[in-house]
Design a protein that fits this description.
heterodimer, A: alpha+beta, 9 helices, B: mainly alpha, 13 helices, about 80% helix, globular
C-alpha cells in the first residue's frame, strides 16, 4: 500500500499542490491528466528522484519520504523505456539484482522466472537496439519487476507504441498485473487505458489531484468543469434551475429547457457526453426526457464514428457510429431529432 | 545522374579547402629528406623536447579528465545559478590569443602571482619548469575536453540514470555504470582533442616556460636561430609522431566502439 500525504513540490513556475492519495496493496491505479499536468513529476517524487518540499510518502507502513531512490524498492518504467543501450536484455534485467547484491544463482533464477512471465525468454541475449517497441516495453517491465518492487510506477508506458501494439500491451499489462499483483501507479493521458486497466482512477490538472474513484464514477460524474472537458464532456453549459417536480429539475440554458434527474437549485453547470445523445431522422416516441429538433451545423468523420454538431438553440455535440450516419443519410443543414435521458445529464 | 550546380559548386569549394588543409602537411613531410629526418630524430635536444611535449600534454590531459569530467557532468545534468556564465567562460581560453593566455597565467603563477608566490615558498615554481608547461597546456586545452565530455553526457537520456537509481544503484554506481560508460566515446574524443591541443600549444607555453624546450618551442628556436632548413625536419618529425599517435587513438576508439 502507498500513502501520499499533503505532498507539495515546486518546480520553477509549476507546483504539485497538496496531493493526498492512497493506493491499496495490489491495486492498479491510473493517474490521468493532460500533458504538463504534473504526472511525471508526481511519480518521480514517489520514486525519490525529486526531494519534495513538504508532505509524506509511506510505502507499506514505512515512511520513505527521506530515503534515496535506491532504498525505496520501487520499479520504474518510462515512456521511452530507458533501456540501457550498452547492455544486453539479460544485463538490463540483471542490473537491479546486481545493485542489490543478489547471488548469481538467485539472479539467474529470477531472470528466468521474470522473462517467462513477460514472454521474453528468447530475446535475453539480444541488444535493446534490435528490439521492437513491444519487446522493449516488456524488457523495461521485466527489469522493473525482477527486483520484486513494493510499488510499480509506469510513466505513459504505452504512449510510444502504435495503436495495435498498444491494444496488445494493454491486455498484457492487465494479465501481468493479475499474475504478479504488485501495487501499480500508471500515469497516462489516455482515457482508454484508464477505463480498461484501472481499479481506480485519479485525475490530475495543473499539479492538483481533482478526483479519485472507480473509472465509471470519475468518467460519468466529474466534479470539475476542466476535468469534465478533459474526460470528453463536450456539451457543457451554464444554466439556471426553473422548476423541480417528480424528481426532475428543469434547467433553462439560453431558452432551451433540459431536464435532469435530481433536485437542483439556482445557477448550475450542465454536462452531457456526446455519446449519450441519440439522433433520429424523424420524430419518434422515446422514453428520453430531453427531445429536441435541431439542424446539423457540421460533422467530423472519425473513421468508425462521426461527430455531429447540432444546433437546437444551443450547439450540441453528438457521437454516432458511421453506420448510423450513413443509414440516416445525414448531411449539413439537415434537420434531425435528438434525444437524451435526464439521467445522462450531469450537474457539475 | 547529372549533378546540379549547387552540388558541383560545393564539391569545388570543398576541394579548395581540403587542398589548403592537407597540402601543407603533405608537403612538409614529403619535401623533407629522409636523411634530415633521421638526423633530427637522433638529435638529443629534439628527442628530449618531443618527449617532454608528449609527457606534459599527457599529464595535462589526465588533469583535464580528472577535474573536467565532474564539471562537464554538472553542466550537462544540473541546473544551477551561473551555469550559462560558466559555459561561456569555457570558450574564453579557446577564443583569446594564446600569448594573452600566457600573460594571464604568468601574472597568476609568476613569482609575484597570487598562486605562484605561496607555492614558490613550498618549492614549486612555474617559470621555466615542467609545472609551468603543464599549467599553460591545461589552460588552453581543458575547455576542449570539458565541452566534448559535456556534449557526450548531454546526449544520454537522463532517465537511464533515474532508472538505475530506482533499481537500487547508488549515485556513484549509476554514474559509472550508466552515464560514464555511455559517454566514454565522447570522453575519449574530447581527451584526444585536448591532448592534441596541449601538444601543439606554443603561445602560452613560451611565455610561462621557454625552457625546458617543448617541441613547438624548439622548432621556433631553431627557426629564429638557423632558419627554415633547421626547423623543417623537426616539424616533420613532430607531425609524423603526432599523426601516428592520433591515428592509433582513432583506431583504439573504433575498436572499443565495435
Amino acid at each position: 500500500m502507498i500513502e501520499i500525504i499533503n505532498l507539495r513540490k515546486k518546480f520553477g513556475n509549476f507546483q504539485l499542490k497538496n496531493i493526498n492519495l492512497s493506493v491499496n496493496k495490489g491495486e492498479y491505479f491510473i493517474l490521468l491528466g493532460p500533458s504538463g499536468a504534473g504526472k511525471t513529476v508526481f511519480i518521480e517524487c514517489i520514486a525519490g528522484l525529486h526531494k519534495i518540499d513538504s508532505g509524506k510518502i509511506i510505502i507499506d507502513g514505512t515512511d520513505v519520504t527521506n530515503l534515496p531512490p535506491e532504498k525505496r524498492n520501487i520499479g520504474l518504467v518510462f515512456q521511452e523505456y530507458a533501456l540501457f543501450p550498452h547492455m544486453s536484455v539479460r544485463e538490463n534485467i540483471e542490473y537491479g539484482l546486481k545493485a542489490k547484491k543478489i547471488p548469481k544463482e538467485r539472479r539467474d533464477q529470477l531472470i528466468r522466472e521474470t522473462a517467462k512471465i513477460l514472454r521474453i525468454e528468447n530475446i535475453l541475449d539480444r541488444s535493446p537496439k534490435n528490439l521492437s517497441g513491444g519487446e522493449k516495453q516488456r524488457v523495461a517491465l521485466a527489469r522493473a519487476l525482477v527486483i520484486e518492487p513494493k510499488v510499480l510506477l509506469l510513466d505513459e508506458p504505452l504512449s510510444a507504441l502504435d495503436a495495435p501494439m498498444r491494444r496488445e500491451l494493454r491486455e498484457e499489462l492487465r494479465r501481468i498485473h493479475r499474475e504478479i499483483c504488485v501495487t501499480t501507479i500508471h500515469v497516462t493521458h489516455d482515457q482508454i487505458e484508464a477505463y480498461s486497466l484501472s481499479d481506480r482512477v485519479g485525475v490530475i490538472f495543473n499539479g492538483k489531484l481533482f478526483e479519485v474513484g472507480p473509472p465509471e464514477d470519475v468518467f460519468r460524474r466529474p466534479k470539475n468543469e476542466d476535468v469534465a472537458k478533459f474526460l470528453g464532456f463536450e456539451n457543457i453549459f451554464k444554466g439556471s434551475v426553473k422548476e423541480y417536480r417528480n424528481g426532475l429539475s428543469e434547467i433553462d440554458i439560453n431558452g432551451v429547457i433540459i431536464e435532469v434527474a435530481g433536485h437542483y437549485k439556482g445557477e448550475v453547470t450542465v454536462a452531457v457526453r456526446p455519446e449519450d445523445i441519440t439522433i433520429y431522422s424523424s420524430r419518434i416516441e422515446s422514453s428520453a426526457r430531453n427531445k429536441f429538433l435541431g439542424k446539423i451545423i457540421d460533422y467530423i468523420d472519425l473513421g468508425a464514428l462521426v461527430k455531429l454538431k447540432i444546433d437546437i438553440g444551443i450547439p450540441i455535440s453528438a457521437l454516432i457510429t458511421k453506420k448510423s450516419f450513413l443509414d440516416l443519410n445525414l448531411q449539413r443543414e439537415r434537420q434531425v431529432h435528438i434525444a437524451f435521458k435526464a439521467s445522462s445529464v450531469h450537474i457539475i | 545522374m547529372k549533378r546540379d550546380i549547387l552540388t558541383i559548386s560545393f564539391i569545388f569549394s570543398s576541394a579548395i579547402i581540403l587542398f589548403m588543409l592537407i597540402f601543407p602537411i603533405l608537403n612538409l613531410i614529403l619535401s623533407t629528406p629522409v636523411t634530415d629526418l633521421i638526423s633530427a630524430a637522433t638529435d638529443n635536444e629534439v628527442i628530449l623536447s618531443i618527449y617532454l611535449s608528449l609527457i606534459t600534454s599527457t599529464i595535462a590531459t589526465i588533469i583535464a579528465f580528472l577535474l573536467g569530467t565532474p564539471l562537464a557532468y554538472l553542466l550537462a545534468r544540473k541546473d544551477f545559478y551561473g551555469k550559462n556564465f560558466i559555459d561561456s567562460i569555457l570558450d574564453l581560453p579557446i577564443l583569446i590569443p594564446h600569448t594573452v593566455a600566457g600573460i594571464a597565467l604568468l601574472a597568476l603563477f609568476g613569482p609575484r602571482g597570487i598562486i605562484g608566490r605561496p607555492l614558490s615558498e613550498l618549492g614549486i615554481y612555474f617559470i621555466d619548469t615542467i609545472y609551468g608547461i603543464i599549467v599553460a597546456m591545461l589552460f588552453v586545452s581543458a575547455p576542449l575536453y570539458i565541452k566534448a565530455a559535456k556534449e557526450a553526457f548531454e546526449s544520454i537520456n537522463p532517465n537511464l540514470f533515474k532508472v538505475a537509481r530506482s533499481l537500487g544503484a547508488s549515485p556513484v554506481r549509476a554514474f559509472f555504470t550508466i552515464d560514464f560508460s555511455l559517454a566514454m566515446r565522447g570522453i575519449f574524443t574530447g581527451a584526444t582533442l585536448c591532448w592534441a591541443r596541449a601538444l601543439s600549444e606554443f603561445g602560452a607555453v613560451i611565455i610561462l616556460a621557454y625552457y625546458p624546450y617543448t617541441a613547438p618551442v624548439i622548432i621556433f628556436k631553431r627557426f629564429t636561430t638557423w632558419g627554415l632548413s633547421a626547423s623543417k625536419p623537426i616539424s616533420a618529425l613532430l607531425l609524423i609522431i603526432t599523426l601516428g599517435i592520433f591515428l592509433f587513438l582513432r583506431f583504439l576508439r573504433r575498436e572499443s566502439v565495435d
